[in-house]
Amino acid sequence: CPSVSISVRQCPSVFISVLQCPSVSFSVRQCLSVSVSVYQCPSVSISVYQCPSVFISVRQCLSVFISVRQCLSVSVSVCQCLSVSVSVCQCLSVSVSVYQCPSVFISVHQCLSVFISVRQCPSVFISVRQCLSVSVSVYQCLSVFISVRQCLSVSVSVHQRLSVSISVYQCPSVSISVYQCPSVSVSVYQCPSVFISVRQCLSVSISVHQCLSVSVSVYQCPSVFISVHQCPSVSISVYLLSQVQTDAQQVTSDKFVFTLPDYEKVNHVVVFMLGTVPFPVGMGGAVYFSFPDPAVGQVWQLLGFITNEKPSAIFKISGLKAGEGGAHPFGMMGVPQAPSVAQVGVSIESLDLLAQQTPVSTSAVSSVDSFTQFTQKMLESLYNFTSSFALSQSQMTPNPSEMFVPASSILKWYENFQRRMMQNPNFWKT
Asked: What is the DSSP string of 71-123?
């Protein structure tokens, strides 16, 4: 059926299915419960107006345009399509999913609870304006630009692609996560409580201004530029792994040694399992550190241990001192010739034996687990105590001298404080 045109007006419960027809055009207005399905039809145009509960699915189509306006609970799914444009206006609970589509443009305006997922698509542009609780996820996409303005509780996740640009304006409680994406640029303006995490990325630029309680974490990203303007309580962590070693020297069947050159320039070492081969049942790995001591020669110090239940650990080596060595299982190993070369040894031992050993005190990284647990219990106690006095509006007795606080505000404070503690347990110190 070439050149199909369908128009439906003021009709409840409409279902339309079109298969293998080029040049299809739909117009549905002021309808309840509309479902449209189009398969293998190039040049599709769909317009729906003032319709609650709309579902549209378009698959394997070229040049698709979909516009939905003033609608409640809209779901649009487009699969393996070229040049797709979706526009949704003044809608509640919108969900849009686009799969394997180059050159996608999506615009959502004045909508509550919007979720958009775009996967394996080059050149994607998404714009969301004046929306509450927006979540956008883009996967394996090249040249993605996302702009969100005047929105509450925004979460954006972009991973494994090139040249990502994200701009968020006047949005409280924003969380942005970008994974394995070179050339990332993120700009957030006038937003309280912003959290941004960028991992394994090249050439990252982040600019946050006039914001309260900003936390930025960047991992394994060379050439990082971060600018924060007029923002109290800012926490920025940029962590760059200079070297990752997986080629340990096997000394015996249960002992392995890594070489650490220029150890004087290293503050912390991370020992972790790759996840391919676990420890035998009831066994773990004791982690030792050895550096050359001019007075007594090679000194081994116990840092801690790793197990299948605790597959990674961070140890501080910059504060280790000579003379703190003790018994160790590595015997009289060859001492590295260079004076600036240290060694990290892993000895496979029983969990019972590991529990009896005491690491050097200076190797432990400061922990905030106990304080975090205390804060969690305090939050729960306050919320449970105040909730026990909760009354509905019909149960309240008028009292001009008494002030009442909405239970929703206590819950919002509880959730915000809990989230900030998870992002940065030391945020209260600033």
From this structure: -EEEEEEEES-BS-EEEEES-EEEEEEEES-SSEEEEEES-EEEEEEEES-SS
Q: What are the tens digits of pLDDT across the range 112-137?
A: 888 898 887 778 888 888 878 888 88
Structure tokens at 76: 């649009």
Closest to 263 in 3D by CA, of 284, 287, 237, 242: 242
Angle, in degrees to the nearest 10, between helices 369-387 and 407-423: 170
Q: Which of 57, 61, 3 is nearest to 34 (CA)?
A: 57
**Token pair of 31 as six digits:** 């309808």
pLDDT tens column, 30-61: 878 888 888 887 888 888 888 788 888 888 87
Q: What is the pTM of this model?
A: 0.54
Give 315's strand partners: 269, 364
Classified as helix, coil or strand, 306 is: strand
Cβ-Cβ contacts under 8 Å for 73 (sequence gap 6 or more):
52, 53, 54, 92, 93
